[in-house]
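Appendix B, example 12.
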Amino acid sequence: MAAEPVQIRGAAPADAAALPNVRPRNEGTPLHVEWFDAARVNLSAAERRAATITTRRTVKKEWQAAWLVRAIQLIDLTTLAGDDTEERVARLCAKARKPLRDDLVAALGLDFSLTTGAVCVYPAMVPAAVRALEGSGVPVASVATGFPAGLIPTRLKLEEIRYAVEEGAAEIDIVITRSHVLDQNWRALHDEVRAMRAACGDAHLKAILATGDLRSLRNVYKASMVAMMAGADFIKTSTGKEDVNATLPVSLVMARAIRDYRALTGFDVGFKPAGGIRTAKDALAWMTLMKEELGTDWLEPELFRLGASALLGDIDRQLEHFVTGRYSADNRHAVA
């Protein structure tokens, strides 16, 4: 017997990709070293606070299902492999357009078009992704600037950004030069990100800080502030290629930087953790962090994304368990 539809409370009836941009874009500011130069981060306190994220707050039953539906809307569905092909990208885009099976959508009572937040690919794969997503409203994001290391000349970084934008990318995930942070050369970092922002034009810029390479949470905070001053629309933890990628303590520090920047300038900046986010439980932890530290506005695709490739499969599995009361075999879940 088919399951009765379950109305998911808390899942907004809106297409994530079609959410209107209701707030002004971060214009950036001149470099103000005094805004962050004296900043200090207590590592043990940050770790203790991060440890409470998954213990002090939980969501259960239909509320958890609603949060997982929203998590789908927040995913930048990603493929960044050396053997990517147009066929693989097309399959990923098909999954982004239709992340859940029709029977699950019906059983959950979803009365809106559910898609992921974006599809993220290498610049060479942007044309294929644009074709595959035509008419869906799902934006194409492209990494650029010599991803993942970023160790190519600035001229080539800017050319790569312009190429991806010209081919149809609506969002650009850039990597910063880590040595600018390690050398405390904030002017060079500000000028670099500012030039990249200009090259993006109307495309939104996500600044990847590669926090696993920055050596301290203090450096993470300072780099976050400088990237936002330079006009970054999002700050992002990692490329997914570092030894240490997204962690809750790092994300907490970056969220606090976003909060401080908003208090100083009035601009809202988005946040994107990436690398190692594989399970529905992981997604709920980062969403809880956003809600507690920045508020419910940061549970919208406009201000929060989850960079992931395997996450959607586990969310699919958890939602099927909610609907049917049992976990299905892996072969029942599509592989993008």
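The chain has one domain: 30-324. The radius of gyration is 19 Å.
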